[in-house]
């Protein structure tokens, strides 16, 4: 168990944390009634027909920020607001909700929604329109007009900034009619409107000056309301030693774990950058004195205004020596809940016992069935309503080295509930994993035994059906980072033209007690495999605190090398959900001292010289103006491959090519450690130090991550290519009998020979036993 003792330095002024109202008052925003009233109307866009939109009520105009207050303008796409592509509005499901978060250190001063949409040409237009709501307040209605039907229309809607809070719901509702007949069918195909994925929300925000209070952490450096990539500069001295860089890496991995799906980037600066929140690590010296820290009494964490941008914060991690700096960094990532005030002095930090393999919080347990309630933060995420609701999505991360030697599928015990139809219709549940169909079920109606009249307890009665199914998910569909999608379609129960549609809203849910089981899989993998690294950080993340990982930097790392270190450790935190508390950072000259660990080599220069020292067995060596790459012979010998435990398609190196090119080149290279068998090395290198950022950019882009594979991935500008050039080795715990079975089963000839030998053994044993029995009967 982790233990932290700290004391909080008393600030000059005490008080409760500012609320949003106090912060608005601090900005001296004028009261609502002092603003001139203007209707919240839809502004005609370039493709509109000049029709005017109407609003439910008049609203004040956008509030302007006081003079001199820093403002920021951002544009959010539909995807950034939570939609998976274009938004389809239909008669039975006419509304979709987009989510918009506003940072705690910002207030909205103006907002404009730009909608691109196309609607049905078969509507009765005086009765049809779109309704736009912000946090359940109607802000605009958009008429659907005949002369633009079937074409894309663009409208701009000015949203009232005072309606925005921290978490906001922006709803778009389609109200459509195709006939004045009382028997109108809500499921009619004429009732449709599609919102383009190019629709955007543009926000202008003014900065709020938060108090200097550690209790706000991780604000403002990370704000869960902000779905953009987390970018936090680190202020480090140009001659920062490896212990300081390790402390910075621990903090970066903590922020990476918080950022999660958003991603994180940590540029390095030599002084506090203007216009940004930043984190500074400092020892006694001119840098600390310039911040007013003339005497550092011990490991401490201090929050203060950024000296180059007073509206932003600077988090200062300080100590009298490198050991105290590490103590302060550990205390920040482990004990921020106990911090308050402007400064905290740390007494002691206990990291607790070592982590067990594969126990990362972001990874699902693989030694037992894991319940869906463990995979979501709120059970409400497993429920939907409407006839054609959005998919229920459950994220699932598992270790990359799972290997099902004795089974080809993953058991999924699925339990689900739904509003049962009265008769058989087209209601279905589709089960997908990573957008690939696994199973589809037709949703049955209620049977006689399900009749609610048979249930005597009112709380348990209802028309919902409960179903449990065992699904076998193909193992090849499952990777290290997965998402399961459950798509319900609850068909309309209207049985005739004038039959009434059910008043009760259709609902469906995946039971939190549903489970998926990986306990039948072994930990065994063929390496190197850069896809494992790019998707989950394996093999470094096998221990969530990176206890068996060493990062090797150039002897004199530059700012880009330091940025690569911090960003890569941020990725590790994202993959595991934990800070890298036990990682080791060493210069290239001391690499042999960490030879028993898995090695992550970052940069060129002296770090790149290690690759040249380890010889031509590597798939790629990069030097300035020269690139040396292994070549492959396209022939393979199945018998020798079987004996050497390599895959049949693995090809042996035939030679090497030495190339000279003027263009920049960056690469990820994977190979077995020259210091210890079954340990791995991943090198992030480039022809020029500045090109290391290309690899970091590729790791941030899901489409490029999908191209990272094999033991060599070359990054050239926007192109990413994965190759397999070197020899394979195997890691993990695999029983000998399982290894024999896998090798034999992959070769039909050997399997046939084994079957014949087994048959002969059984026949000879039976012949011998029968011969003995006959001899006894004959008195022999």
UniProtKB/TrEMBL annotation:
Keyword Cell inner membrane found: yes
Topology in membrane: Single-pass membrane protein
Species per Swiss-Prot/TrEMBL record: Cupriavidus cauae
Function noted in UniProt: Binds the cellulose synthase activator, bis-(3'-5') cyclic diguanylic acid (c-di-GMP).
Major subcellular location class: membrane
Organism phylogeny: Bacteria, Pseudomonadati, Pseudomonadota, Betaproteobacteria, Burkholderiales
Keywords: c-di-GMP, Cell inner membrane, Cell membrane, Cellulose biosynthesis, Membrane, Signal, Transmembrane, Transmembrane helix
Pathway entry: Glycan metabolism; bacterial cellulose biosynthesis
Entry annotated with the keyword Protein biosynthesis: no
One Gene Ontology CC term in the entry: plasma membrane
Composition bias, Low complexity: 35-71
Stated family: Belongs to the AcsB/BcsB family.
Listed name of the protein: Cyclic di-GMP-binding protein
Subcellular location: Cell inner membrane
């Amino acid at each position: 168990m982790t233990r932290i003792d700290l004391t909080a330095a008393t600030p000059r002024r005490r008080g409760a944390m500012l609320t949003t109202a106090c912060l608005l008052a601090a900005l001296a925003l004028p009261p609502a009634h002092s603003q001139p009233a203007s209707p919240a109307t839809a502004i005609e866009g370039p493709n509109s027909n000049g029709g005017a939109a109407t609003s439910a009520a008049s609203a004040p105009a956008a509030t302007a920020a006081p003079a001199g207050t820093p403002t920021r303008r951002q544009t959010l796409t539909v995807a950034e607001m939570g939609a998976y592509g274009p938004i389809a509005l239909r008669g039975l499901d006419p509304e979709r909700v987009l989510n918009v978060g506003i940072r705690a250190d910002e207030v909205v001063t103006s907002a404009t929604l730009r909608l691109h949409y196309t609607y049905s040409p078969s509507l009765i237009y005086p009765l049809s329109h779109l309704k736009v709501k912000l946090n359940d307040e109607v802000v605009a209605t958009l008429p659907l007009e005949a002369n633009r039907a079937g074409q894309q229309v663009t409208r701009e809607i000015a949203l009232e900034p005072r309606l925005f809070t921290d978490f906001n719901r922006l709803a778009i509702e389609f109200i459509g009619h195709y006939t004045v007949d009382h028997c109108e069918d809500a499921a009619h195909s004429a009732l449709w409107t599609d919102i383009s994925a190019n629709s955007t929300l543009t926000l202008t925000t003014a900065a709020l000056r938060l108090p200097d209070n550690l209790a706000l952490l991780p604000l403002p450096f990370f704000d869960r309301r902000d779905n953009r990539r987390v970018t936090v500069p680190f202020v480090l001295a140009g001659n920062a030693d490896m212990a300081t860089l390790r402390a910075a890496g621990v903090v970066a991995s903590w922020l990476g774990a918080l950022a999660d799906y958003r991603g994180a980037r940590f540029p390095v600066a030599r002084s506090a950058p203007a216009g940004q929140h930043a984190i500074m690590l400092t020892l006694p010296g001119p840098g600390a004195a310039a911040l007013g820290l003339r005497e550092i009494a011990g490991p401490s964490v201090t929050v203060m205004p950024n000296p180059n941008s007073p509206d932003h914060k600077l988090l200062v991690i300080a100590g009298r020596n490198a050991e105290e700096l590490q103590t302060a960094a550990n205390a920040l990532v482990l004990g921020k809940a106990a911090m308050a005030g402007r400064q905290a002095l740390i007494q002691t930090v206990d990291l607790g016992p070592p982590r067990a393999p594969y126990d990362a919080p972001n990874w699902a347990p693989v030694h037992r069935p894991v319940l869906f309630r463990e995979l979501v933060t709120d059970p409400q995420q497993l429920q939907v309503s409407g006839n054609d609701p959005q998919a229920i999505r459950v994220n699932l991360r598992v270790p990359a080295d799972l290997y099902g030697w004795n089974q080809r599928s993953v058991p999924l015990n699925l339990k689900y509930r739904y509003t049962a139809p009265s008769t058989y219709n087209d209601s279905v549940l589709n089960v997908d994993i990573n957008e690939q169909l696994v199973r589809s079920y037709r949703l049955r109606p209620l049977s006689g035994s399900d009749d609610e009249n048979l249930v005597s307890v009112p709380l348990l009665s209802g028309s919902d059906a409960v179903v449990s199914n065992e699904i076998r998910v193909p193992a090849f569909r499952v990777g290290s980072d997965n998402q399961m999608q459950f798509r319900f379609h609850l068909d309309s129960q209207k049985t005739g033209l004038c039959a009434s549609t059910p008043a009760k809203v259709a609902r469906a849910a995946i039971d939190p007690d549903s489970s998926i089981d990986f306990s039948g899989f072994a930990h065994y993998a063929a390496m190197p495999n850069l896809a494992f690294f790019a998707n989950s950080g394996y093999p470094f993340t096998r221990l969530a605190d990176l206890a068996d990982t060493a990062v090797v930097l150039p002897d004199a790392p530059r700012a880009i090398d330091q940025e690569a270190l911090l960003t890569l450790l941020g990725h590790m935190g994202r993959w595991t959900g934990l800070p890298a508390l036990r990682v080791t950072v060493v210069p290239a000259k001391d690499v042999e001292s960490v030879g028993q660990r898995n090695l992550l080599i970052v940069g060129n220069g002296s770090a790149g010289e290690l690759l040249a020292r380890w010889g031509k067995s590597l798939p790629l060596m990069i030097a300035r103006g020269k690139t040396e790459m292994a070549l492959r012979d396209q022939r393979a010998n199945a018998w020798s491959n079987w004996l050497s435990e390599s895959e049949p398609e693995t090809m042996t190196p035939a030679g090497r090519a030495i190339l000279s090119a003027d263009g920049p080149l960056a690469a990820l290279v994977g190979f077995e450690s020259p210091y210890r068998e079954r340990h791995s090395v991943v090198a992030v290198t480039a022809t020029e130090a500045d090109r290391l950022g290309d690899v970091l950019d590729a790791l941030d882009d899901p489409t490029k991550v999908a191209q990272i594979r094999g033991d060599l991935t070359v990054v050239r500008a926007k192109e990413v290519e994965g190759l397999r050039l070197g020899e394979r080795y195997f890691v993990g715990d695999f029983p000998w009998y399982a290894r024999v079975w896998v090798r034999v089963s992959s070769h039909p000839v050997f399997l046939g020979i084994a079957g014949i030998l087994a048959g002969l053994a059984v026949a000879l044993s039976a012949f011998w036993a029968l011969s003995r029995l006959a001899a006894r009967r004959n008195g022999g």
